[in-house]
What we know:
The model has no long low-confidence stretch (mean pLDDT about 95). Helix 1 runs parallel beside helix 12 (about 290-310) and helix 5 crosses helix 7 (about 155-165). The protein has helices spanning about 15-25, 35-45, 60-65, 85-90, 100-115, 120-130, 155-165, 180-190, 195-200, 220-225, 245-250, 290-310, 320-325, and strands at about 5-10, 25-30, 50, 70-75, 95, 150-155, 170-175, 190, 205, 230-235, 260, 280. Helix 3 (about 60-65) links the parallel strand 3 (about 50) and strand 4. The protein starts with a strand and ends with a helix. It contains 13 helices and twelve strands. Pfam families: 2-Hacid_dh, 2-Hacid_dh_C. Belongs to the D-isomer specific 2-hydroxyacid dehydrogenase family. InterPro entries: D-isomer_2-hydroxyacid_DH, D-isomer_2_OHA_DH_cat_dom, D-isomer_DH_CS, D-isomer_DH_CS1, D-isomer_DH_NAD-bd, NAD(P)-bd_dom_sf.
Amino acid sequence: MEKWNVYVTRMLPPAAMEFLREHFNVEVNPEDRPLTREELLRNIKGRDAIITQLVDKVDAEFLDAAKGVKIVANYAVGYDNIDLNAATERGIMISNTPDVLTNATAELAWALLFAAARRIVEADKYFRAGKYKSWGPMLFLGQDITGKTLGIIGAGRIGTAFARMAKGFNMRILYTDEKPNPRFEEQTGGEYVDKETLLRESDFISLHCPLLPSTRHLISDREFDMMKKTAILINTARGPIVDEKALVRALKEGKIFAAGLDVYENEPAAEPELYEMDNVVLLPHIGSATTKSRNDMGILAASNVLDAYEGKVPRTLVNKEVLTKLGK
């Protein structure tokens, strides 16, 4: 069988690139930056498979430019950058990379929670600037974690892993989602509540839901008004779930204690005032950034392409409706 022509929009970890080159003819964006739209549309022409990033907008224009493509493998667990209906209509399979980054992202959410609660970044900057002269009883007072109430919005893989990690801190766990999740409750002891109850009663609120029309600006002025003044908001999900202008107001007016963000509403930029605030920890979208997770993501994306090449159903196919169109 003739080898497929595969295009990779940004260099993947070495293990994934080796895997791809073993099975396919591969071309990759040689620069460590996202492609411009013009470059992207030009480079995807005549490909059998394309491995994309979250920054690559896969819409009707993209799919028409990539005429003949069989699969678009997204190097991410999310796929809000992809028009699934447009892909399915054209008989193009879409895959993602779930599971392999679950623990890494959950761990980073905890890192943000600790950093925001104990003012780690603020204290580090203070010490490096030579301002620490003596210990004092009021120096960098933060929030306790053990025994507090943890609210989780989104009880999927990452939300569940994040909640399991709370067991060592003897926390009360509240969660909300579209409906109760018995698996989440069995593994975490969490209690299903409505969003309003979770916002009012939680000391820490961590977002783990997908970006959908219904979750865009899920957290805005109304929600911040419900939170405790000592509450801390963590977002490792998708930036637009939080209304960043409302977050700035909440942090400035003391409606909440702090926030920890790994994702942003208009990524890669954040709301300008956030850069100057000490009560928010800002990270550059590194939720899955461990060597193992990033390698595993690459191997899974490449394996999905290989599955498609061999006539199999890709193991993490997203738009399963396309199988009917393909006669599988």
